[in-house]
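Field log, afternoon session.

UNIT: design team B
ACTIVITY: writing a sequence onto a fixed backbone
BACKBONE:
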């Protein structure tokens, strides 16, 4: 009889333990499913690239300048137009407000160019760098430097 009571006591203890194990297993499975369902939305947000800010361009009127050349030929002329790519709207506003000074700096730079240097690709790349450098200093004391991200030629005639 003690054997039957012992088996009966073990069965009474086994049922609650099995119920607790089943409840924990269901909870873990439910949590895992919930995490899997939530992860694709997070991955989609993380995978979505940030939209870059709209570029800020400033188109300048074309420039026509006489060029330096070894022959002292007065007919060596550069006709060039370009657009500046700027980092922000504040820089565009500053360049627009001080446009006469900007054009003056650029005219002085362009008139110092050598016709033979501008006839190849390397010369044009150097001119782009020089334009960025000449526009970098502040236009008026107390203002920040201008940052020109890129210079895009829209017209380039070397005659």
């Amino acid at each position: 009889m003690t054997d039957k009571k012992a088996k009966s006591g073990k069965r009474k203890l086994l049922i609650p333990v099995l119920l607790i194990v089943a409840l924990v297993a269901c909870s873990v499975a439910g949590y895992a499913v919930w995490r899997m369902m939530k992860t694709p939305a997070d991955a989609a947000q993380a995978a979505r690239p940030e939209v870059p800010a709209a570029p800020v361009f400033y188109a300048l009127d074309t420039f026509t300048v006489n060029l330096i050349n070894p022959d002292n030929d007065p007919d060596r002329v550069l006709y060039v137009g370009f657009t500046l790519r700027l980092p922000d709207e504040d820089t565009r506003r500053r360049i627009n407000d001080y446009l006469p000074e900007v054009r003056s700096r650029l005219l002085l730079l362009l008139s110092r160019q050598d016709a033979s240097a501008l006839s190849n690709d390397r010369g044009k790349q150097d001119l782009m760098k020089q334009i960025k450098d000449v526009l970098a200093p502040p236009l008026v004391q107390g203002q920040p430097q201008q940052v020109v991200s890129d210079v895009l030629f829209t017209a380039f005639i070397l005659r």
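LOG NOTE: The two ends are 119 Å apart (CA to CA).
NEXT ACTIVITY: expression trials, pending approval
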